[in-house]
Amino acid sequence: MTEREMNAYAAVLVDTCLDFKAGGRLRIACEAVNRELALACARRAYELGARAVRVDWSDMRLARAQADLLREDWLDDKPLLTRRIFETYVEEGWSSLNILGEEDPSLMEGADPARLQRMGRARSLAVKNYHDAVISNRIAWCVAPSPTAAWGKAVFEGSKRPVPADPEAALWKELVPILRLDAPDPARAVREHMEALQERARRLNGLTLRAVRFRGPGTDLTVALAPESNWIGGGSVTPDGRNFYPNLPTEEVFASPDWRGTEGRAACTRPFDLYGQKVRGAWIEFKAGQLVDFGADENADALARWVETDPGARRLGEVALVDGSGPIFRSGLVFGNALIDENAACHVALGSAYEEAYRGIESVAEGERSKLGFNESMVHEDLMIGSDAVEVTGVDASGRELPLISKGRFAV
Amino acid sequence: MTEREMNAYAAVLVDTCLDFKAGGRLRIACEAVNRELALACARRAYELGARAVRVDWSDMRLARAQADLLREDWLDDKPLLTRRIFETYVEEGWSSLNILGEEDPSLMEGADPARLQRMGRARSLAVKNYHDAVISNRIAWCVAPSPTAAWGKAVFEGSKRPVPADPEAALWKELVPILRLDAPDPARAVREHMEALQERARRLNGLTLRAVRFRGPGTDLTVALAPESNWIGGGSVTPDGRNFYPNLPTEEVFASPDWRGTEGRAACTRPFDLYGQKVRGAWIEFKAGQLVDFGADENADALARWVETDPGARRLGEVALVDGSGPIFRSGLVFGNALIDENAACHVALGSAYEEAYRGIESVAEGERSKLGFNESMVHEDLMIGSDAVEVTGVDASGRELPLISKGRFAV
User: What is the pLDDT of residue B276?
Assistant: First the structure.
């Protein structure tokens, strides 16, 4: 990334994706390997009149030391400090930018999933307030990638292409069109793309679907929709009227389903990450809305532990449609990172549903929502189940089945 | 630093300097350039049964961006988040390890001292609770160095020696004997050294001095001591009985003076750092306890702004004795870092006094202590005024003057 490219990317993230305004506060979360981009975003926020910028540097080697060495006695500690920090972010309305790009994507491999689950659950409890604010768009947030050498190496090693001499630069070259930074005016290109996704969501809402059905190799899954389920795409709005884009890139339109009606089986078409461990070749099976069976070729243990976090971790909180026409799928690469891979393929999420994607749910008290079909959980994880070989249909209120995605292309 | 040396150093810091125990919490503050040592200390703390380890990574490039770009409107903001974080450290009794070693010692040069002072004052107000806990030993804390390439380069460039090919390794080689890590049992060597300093403090207390006088080139300064002034050296004790060493290295014995009796002038013999800016060639002049005049060859502005922080920043809070027999002075190097340079030379500090170095002061309410001679301030900065050419004498209750340090060697 040249300095010019980096500053342009930072401006898209801060100005366009977060709709950042003078007087706002910005939290940036990333690893030290993403420092240059984080600093470019911080400078951009200060230029716009930020009142405060804070970088939460995460260190996965420290996390691994904790995973390996923390005494059993403290595994379930809900850190007061973490709770206070995240409560303050919500209370003061900090915008949140999460820059993803790992120094070493394999660092957590081999750590004990049972210990990771207990520590992860304790952390989820400590930051519940913040998770709720994100899920309900009370704060503006954005998750975006930054290439690293080790990540680039892993992506190309897993592809049919040779590993380039400079894998970080090569990965960046792949990301530029995916992020629409190759457009003459990237901010405008991002906004126009978001409007196209919003238009797709409107068309889907016009169909008043009661279910979405996925059929393909190893997959026959029905996801029930409630009358309140609301297709969303391309952006969200904070209570104070900031239009923000929670993910860059994004190619999805998604809805919060009625979790109680999930039935059938699906094969995951891309790996996903739990506690830093890559779960590959996973499959999931539901009866009457509950995850009743599952497995994986690699790190099945991590999945088994993760679904124990709370009852909502075994139910669906999201169904998302992505076809094969987008730049991520067309790149032919598997990025090993949910932010990008979820935008290459249809997916469902285990865990918490999104409020804006389920009409009227904000007036129902927390703890009462799951009974109505809106899934509540402390966690949320996307599982990719789409590919060119997976046909997606919708079932409307009259029982009519109509194609949504066919042969890898949207039919609506 | 080899991995073995690093682990040995980490054990000295965590086990010996912090007297860290199972169930404790450890905060480590450092720049990313000190990451390997920080991780070694974190692992050591986990091995000892730490309940939590948190690294507060500071990024001076981010600090510089803030210094240059933050809007005038927010310069005096006392960040709520910072306040809550540091309040939690005190409330939960976190041990604090501050690893010093800059990625780029010149990064703050040229920043506006007036803006730095306002931001620094706001931060001091936000962390006042924590500063008070440190000053009164309610938490165990330690400040210790870690070599960096840029720091090493600056040290050797400022010396008569050639700049070595690997300045980080060369600086480490200088620090090893200073830290007493060259001893067969470094932890024991550190403890024995601390006991020798404690013995020196006992001897000084036996003299019941009423003043200390410094005379040398450009210096004739009298620092008054109160009957309550208490010489301290080599370590402190927390309320729960942990023996900790706040500085590694340390060569000083120090007391909290009666600030009201400071008279005369002193030339600073080593540079010191304010807001990341090196103040060189400074001098200070006192009348009736107040700093009435001062100057510097470089960054006089930073000093001028710093003393505006609060009234206590213009009064003395510490007088410390160090002779020329210690390993730091003997190295012949100026380290450009107060932690090390203050242990090469006698010094006085502008700003807050230490409770344990002034008997009975803890029973006087905050805000009332300055009237009695115990200086209260939000800040504390050491100014080195000693050298082989500076003679130090003590004046006892009967008015008798006796030599304390003569020709660079302790006489008591």
Answer: 87
Burial (CB count within 10 angstroms: exposed 0-12, middle 13-18, buried 19+), residue A107 = middle
Residue B173 CA to residue B41 CA, distance in Å, equals 20
Residues 6+ apart with CB under 8 A from B131: B124, B352, B378
The token pair at B378 is: 């939000």
- Cα–Cα nearest to A349, from A411, A268, A279: A268
Is B32 touching A (CB cutoff 8 A)? yes
Residue with tokens 């002193």: B266
CB contact under 8 A, A65 and B42: yes
Query: Locate tokens 């830093």: which residue?
Result: A276
Bond preceding residue B257 cis, omega within 30 of 0: no
Listed in sequence order, the residues at least 6 apart from A311 whose beta carbon sits closer than 8 Å to its beta carbon are A370, A377
This model of the complex carries an ipTM of 0.93
Question: Which two tokens mark A166?
Answer: 């400079």
Cα B41 to Cα B148: distance, rounded to the nearest angstrom:
17
The single-letter DSSP state of residue A12 is I
**Whole-angstrom Cα distance, residue A221 to residue A94?**
39
* DSSP reduced 3-state for B2: coil
Find, among A113, A275, A59, the residue nearest to B41 by Cα.
Answer: A59
Answer yes or no: are the C-beta atoms of A288 and A371 closer than 8 Å: no
Domains of chain B (ranges; CATH) run 3-178 (3.40.1830.10), 200-231+251-410 (no CATH)
Q: Pick from A60, A62, A10, A34: which is nearest to A148 by CA?
A: A34
Q: Terminus-to-terminus CA distance in chain A, angstroms?
A: 37
Rounded (10°) angle between helices A80-91 and A128-135? 30
Alpha carbon distance A145, A168 (integer Å): 12
Quick one: tokens of B102?
């800059």
Q: Provide CB contacts within 8 A for A59, sequence distance 6+.
A: A31, A32, B35, B39, B55, B57
Average pLDDT, chain B: 96
Alpha-carbon distance of B99 to B28, in angstroms, equals 7
Residues of A with CB below 8 A from B78's CB?
none
The CA R_g of chain B, rounded to the nearest whole Å, is 20
Taking CB atoms and an 8 Å cutoff, what residues of chain B touch A47?
A: 69
Question: Which of A47, A70, A80 has its CB closest to that of B88?
Answer: A80
Q: Name the pTM for this structure.
A: 0.94
Predicted pLDDT of residue A374: 98
Chain B CB contacts of A42 below 8 Å? 62, 65-66
Residue B219 near residue B267 (C-beta atoms within 8 A): yes
Residue B207 has pLDDT above 90, yes or no: yes
Q: Considering just the CA atoms, what is the radius of gyration of chain A in Å? A: 20
Q: How many helices (H) and strands (E) does chain B have?
A: 12, 21
